[in-house]
Every structure is written in C-alpha cells, then in structure tokens.
DNA sequence: CTTGAAAAGTGATGTAGGTCACTTTTAGCT
DNA sequence: AGCTAAAAGTGACCTACATCACTTTTCAAG
C-alpha cells in the first residue's frame, strides 16, 4: 500500500509541493478500494459518496438514453480522477454509470474529506483548482471537436491523442465516445 | 467603481468568506476594462493576458474553422467568467476569439495575480476550485446533450435553461452554439 | 484445443440535418 | 422617417451518418 500512496503523492507533487506532515494529513483522508472487471463504481440512482483516483485499471463513465443506448462521457485510467462530479458535488443520487473495463484499484475521497483537506492544506486546494481547470480545458476541446469535426476526423484525432487507450477499449465503445455508430466507425479504417 | 467591486466581492462571497483585509488584498489585483459592441477581448494569435469577470454586457467565445464557419464555445454575460482558458493557463497565443455582443465591462485578472491571490488567500483558491468544478459539470452536461439529443431538443432545452439569453442573441449565433445550421434552426419554431 | 459469446465488418436502405439560392423581415444609423 | 445591412424564413436538393439484418472474426473460459 505504501507504494500506491507514494504514486498518489507524486501525482499531487507534479502540481504543488507538500511537506511530509501535510502529506500524512492528506493521505489519511483517502480510502482504498479494488474492483473486478464489469463491477460498478457508480450507478444511476445510488449515492455518490466519493471521487476516485485510479491507481490501476480502466473504467468508463456513461449514461444510458431512453432507447437504451450507451453514451460515453469519459474513459479513465491510471492517474486519472473519475466520479459523477455533478451528483458528488451536490450529494444527490448518481446520474451516470461508471464501471470497470479491467480489474481496477482506487483511492476514494469523500466530499467532506475533500473540503477538509482543501481548507486545511491550501496547496491541496490549489492542486484541485489547477486539476479542475485542466479538466475544463479538455472538455472545451472535446466540445469544439464535436462542433467542428466530422466523425471520421474525430476518430483520427483520438487515435493520435490516446493511441494506448484504443488498444485497451473495444471499438464499439470508442464509437459511443465519439458520438458515432459502431457500424460507421467500422467503415473508417477500410 | 466601488459599487462594481462590491458586486465582485458578492460574487466571491456566494462561495467563500473573506475578511475585509483579505478582500482589499484580492481586489487590488484586478484591473478594470470596458469595451464597445463588436470589439475584441481575445483574438487568435494574440497574447491572452487575463481572465475576465463580466460586470455587465454579453460576449461570445468562438473559433473559426477552415471554411470560415464560426463555432460558439460559450456565451458569457453578467457575473460570468470568460477567457481562452487554455491559452491563458499556458501563456500561449490565443486559440479562440472573444468579442462583445453588447457594450461590456470587465474586471481582469492576470495569471500571475491569480496565482498570487490563490496562494496568499486560501479562500480564493477554494473559490476558483469550486467555480472551476461547476464549469466542468456544465461542460459535461453539454457534451452529453451533443451526444444524446437531436438538434431540435437541444434547442428546446436551451430555451428552457437560458430564456433570457435567447432574447439577447441573434438566432444564427444560437444555431452555431447548438452545432446546427441557421436554416435548420429556423425550421424548428414553425 | 474447442466452443459460445462478444466484437467487428458489410450491404441495403432511411433520414436528420446541411447547403445553396432566393425572399421577407427586422433593426440600427443618419 | 427612410435607407441599408443584418437577420430570419423558405424551398429544392444533397450527404453524412443511422439503422437493420446478416456474416465473419476474435477471444476468453472450460
């Protein structure tokens, strides 16, 4: 476990500096969790008690429309944060599903604990501020890509940006992330 | 000007508490700017020295594709923050345009000053953290709407969510925000 | 190594929404 | 009030992509 916590510390220290005492305080507010492939981290209608930092593994966050079709909001793997941020922030029931595409391990942070460490250790508030800002920028890029690009160029773009991801995820899920049908995506390569 | 700064303080205090001394310190790091309709706040290729809190007015943030078509990332009005967050954060040249749809006034915050007040006044770091988180949640919603909804229902959704905005913005810009052509949008009402 | 299920590929056909060209309406300036 | 330019509406036609139905390939579990 120490090695895993060290990874988390490194993740924080990529952005802000923490003293050993600060880190001891911070790390004591995380819980550990591990799940097998196909198990759910978050489900629609269930409480969302945590946001999760992924130690290892791969998950998908998605919602299901009236027709039963899956729409993928995010893939998240090692070193990513994932949650139903909306439900988590407002402590409401989940609005999306998050489940594991591979066996996965997480460090879990409750809202109460997050606010505690943010108000106790300013560097942590700055860490989350900067992280959140990066996330915002990424989503803006994705919106632009949905507005400006064809399905095919969105696919090429993703191939370049996250080649590793494509290896680990079935194409039909990539299609659902790009907002295109499985069949259409399949016709792109050829 | 005092009244305008008071508005800004209220904006901060909706989320965090600040002492008078803290506020004095914080407010001294903002600059005031005012622009007429059609003037640019940010331009592609130009330095992005600030992020802007809108005291009054309305702006659009957009990019222009190879075919010269405009794609609107965001409308922002009173009490909103706006910038080219990506360029601002990395101090790179602008990647989008932001211009005024109405005469507008802003408080401007440089990156240096933002980091200064965030590291000096922890409440401010928490303010931006929480704000940024809200922004992230909004963008996620918009991505979901682009993935799951038809152009028509996205329009209806927007009509319900921001009726005031529709009054102030020409429909062709709404179309560009929704990712639909002007002509198609025009056929929805009828 | 086999086998059953999930994933991927493929053809035929349907449709939401785009594009182009033109008309009508609205709104800002002098 | 009168004029110009931008905005909005509309018809005809086009295309990217969806959907459906089916086949082939891949892969994991016994």
From TrEMBL, chains A, B:
<dbReference type="Pfam" id="PF00027">
    <property type="entry name" value="cNMP_binding"/>
</dbReference>
<feature type="domain" description="Cyclic nucleotide-binding">
    <location>
        <begin position="33"/>
        <end position="118"/>
    </location>
</feature>
<dbReference type="InterPro" id="IPR014710">
    <property type="entry name" value="RmlC-like_jellyroll"/>
</dbReference>
<protein>
    <submittedName>
        <fullName>cAMP-binding domain of CRP or a regulatory subunit of cAMP-dependent protein kinases</fullName>
    </submittedName>
</protein>
<keyword id="KW-0418">Kinase</keyword>
<dbReference type="InterPro" id="IPR018490">
    <property type="entry name" value="cNMP-bd_dom_sf"/>
</dbReference>
<dbReference type="InterPro" id="IPR000595">
    <property type="entry name" value="cNMP-bd_dom"/>
</dbReference>
<dbReference type="GO" id="GO:0016301">
    <property type="term" value="F:kinase activity"/>
</dbReference>
<keyword id="KW-0808">Transferase</keyword>
